[in-house]
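Milestone M4 deliverable, item 7.
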Amino acid sequence: MEQTLSDIAPYVALGAAVAAVILAILLVSLLVSVRRLRRAQQAVLGGHGERDLVSHAEGLEDQVRNLRDAVEALEGRIDGHKRELDKAFTYRALLRYDAFRETGGEQSASLALLDRDRSGIMISTISSRDEARLYVKELRQGVPDRALSPEEVTAVEKASPGDAGDAGDRRPPLAGDASA
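Output delivered:
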């Protein structure tokens, strides 16, 4: 039996040496893989020290959540500004004309200032040789509080939002408008 162990010992030693070499090769390959993984992680994470991908992903998730909250807050503010702008005089038209035959130089004028709903004011000045008169009329959704002259109707139509093709049937007719 002693003979058998001494006969087997070189084979066992050789097997152990081969196993050690295989384990060493596996260890080196694992170290190379870990080094590659760390370099790839550095490329993704940047120079953030010892953070791992999980904490980096959590940080990104927090940033996205904060960004989403900020966008929602801005959307609310934008909606408020849109409502304010709808009521601002963003549409206007100035029409100059001769109100009387004896005057020239188009000294009379009508100025229409309207918001998106065609609400606003009409300011007209009628000039003759001896005097000038100023008229102010209010419009609510295209309906004036007093009858409009043909020149005022033209100014309101020129100032109205959208073109006639868009707004066609939704706009109420103007008082004093020949087509009404």
